[in-house]
# Entry
Amino acid sequence: MQIEKSSEWKEGLQKRLDGELEWDNWTLYQMCYDVEKRKLIPTFYGLQSPKYLPALTPYPHQLEAAETVIERMNGKAILADEVGLGKTIEAGLILKEYLIRGLVKKALILTPASLLNQWIEELNQKFHIPAIPFNKKYDLNLCNIVVASLDMAKRSPHKENIYNQNYDLVIVDEAHKLKNHKTKNYEFVQSLKKKFCLLLTATPIQNDVFELFHLISLLKPGHLGNFETFQQVFSASKHNVEEDEFLKELINQVMVRNSRQHIGLDWTSRRVQIIPLEFSDKEKEVYKLIANSGEHLQAFSDAFTVMTLKREFCSSKEAAWLTLEKLVGKCQGAEERAYMDELLLKLQSLDLNTKAEKAYEIIKQANDKVIIFTEYHASQTYLQAFLYSKGITSVPFNGKFNKSKREWMKQLFKEKAQVLIATESGSEGINLQFCHHVINYDLPWNPMKVEQRIGRVHRLGQEHDVHIYNLAIKHTIEDYMLELLNTKIGVFEKVVGELDDILSEYRLSI
Amino acid sequence: MISLYPKQIQQYLKTFFTETNCPIVQESDHHITVQLTIDMDKRIMNRPFYWSYVESTGSEPKSAQLTLITDKNRMGLNIPGEIVHYGSPRLNQLFQVAKERGAFVQLFEDVDNPSAVQTVLTPWLGVNYKITYSSDRTKEMLYSLGMNLMTGAVMDGFQEAVSELKLEAAIPPNTFYLPYIIKPSRAMERLEQLIDDLIGQDDHTWVEEAKVRRERDLQVLEYFYKGIEERPESYEMEKKAIEEQYETKIKVDVINGGLFYVR
# Structure
């Protein structure tokens, strides 16, 4: 094999022998040799990075994950720890290790815009890695470690500029944003050259096993075969994973997943319960009108509209009102209009929201900080007013808030308010370990979203048991949603591994 | 080797700044404040605009003072300064400066010789090598070799041996040295040959292992595109990435070295 050498030192020596340059200092010479000796990487194995990071104390599972990725997975892996176990720390350790070993010079980190600053801060402060935020004014040739938002990076002309760089390591945070292989996100990451690559997601499967197939094909095309063969073997039905042991084995070759239960840390427990509720008679009446509206109203004839309305009404009349308002104009004929009027009138006259009352009860009983998650902005506003009328202070939170507003709301919640009411998009990137109660006021379709919500609170640093209350109205669409969520959890567990309780401690039988 | 402790870093900094002629303004067991020389300021403080301003206006240059804290926890006083530890960018920078300024030496052994007999010193070329093996992993080795420039005899562990001696940059009194017979450039060639031999004799299963990993990954990739006649661009790119990832390399660097006249 070719041995790489430089003649630079030899030439320097000659210049000194010829008297052109001065000789150096003996003490500095010795110091230099000592440092080199200390910095020596004497083996192919193990991690060098921890000794350069005395201020950081990684957990054993994080060190193990970093080592596994480098040694067993050759630097191409999905880091899929459960939410709150420190995937960022693992990624930082791996990046640092490759930088120390000289295997990575240039790295690109892609994140959601809301997490960009957090990454910059952590890499610089915790890992002493001089990462800088992507900026179109900077010359990428001169920036070695760049953090960019995926949304920005995938657009022209940034996309082309990034393609022109030769990155040794690509890290994608919240990589479930790449689950759909027909999106721009996917195409962009697919077109990047990936010598070493880390995909970070707590939820590698959100709906079906094909999402994981596409994620792995991004990382290591062919690992699960090509799409046709994969489909043949694993898709008897989308939700029934056959040959799962074999699949699991393959997945374990490219994925690290630590779960709370298995990392041997003294975790506080998760008390999860489904709280089944019964609508009041008046509410039942309205629900029935909505459920049957498809038969009476032309505008409601598609199943999706009715389903949406059902879900909204299970949340609050305010949420349903917004959708209904848009449909009023579409009613044709006296009969239809009469049906609609009755619906609107009955909806308007409702003076009690069973779910909100229950939420209030829980808050009062908890007598502590509580986070309420809802799918709907209208419910968020309603709940805030409702709680205010009961003398409970609350702050809103959603993903559209910019960084300083997020921080401000978090601060207000910590110091002033008892309740934080968040919409779905608010469930990434905030850490609220000081709170121990979560109410899922309504449920999303995707179980991983529920996990993300709970993960805001139940993460490293939590010192108390965490209580999760999942509110669901009996004999409504929410029954069906619970069932579907359970099925999806089943798929996830068969393929990826156990999931901490998110719906209840006792699984419903499917 | 393990990490450097705060106490060792404190000692390192003190020696470093003393040897680079930067006066120590204030120090405790846990911190040090130094007055940088103009030269050192330009090298480590990263303020090119200030220096070009000074040079263009001809105003009096004022080099900076630098305070480094090695053990924040034990500092009783609240002195503003940079916290340094093993792995911190500042310390890495100083390591780099030490490397630049400690690359070539010419030294003479100072033999404490009370008799009137003159001491005769023999010339050696000493070179410290670092060898790096790399694929998707790395491993490094240090070799400190010395060659007697009279006889051609080679010694391993040269640095450890000479660091026991009292060495001076100028020739001590009542001492004289033999001029070398083997030219340093020739000796250098022979040492390099020796390094090549050492590498040649080493166990290189790591190369085979990397090859196996590469082949496996290439096969997986082929499987993904099986039956596709026109391979897309992403195929070529993935293939290139795999080749680069497992490419095996051996590199030899000289850390430092020089002429040693010893008894």
Remarks:
- The radius of gyration of chain A is 28 Å.
- Chain A touches chain B through 63 residues (CB under 8 Å).
- Chain A has three domains: 49-260, 270-276+353-495, 282-349.
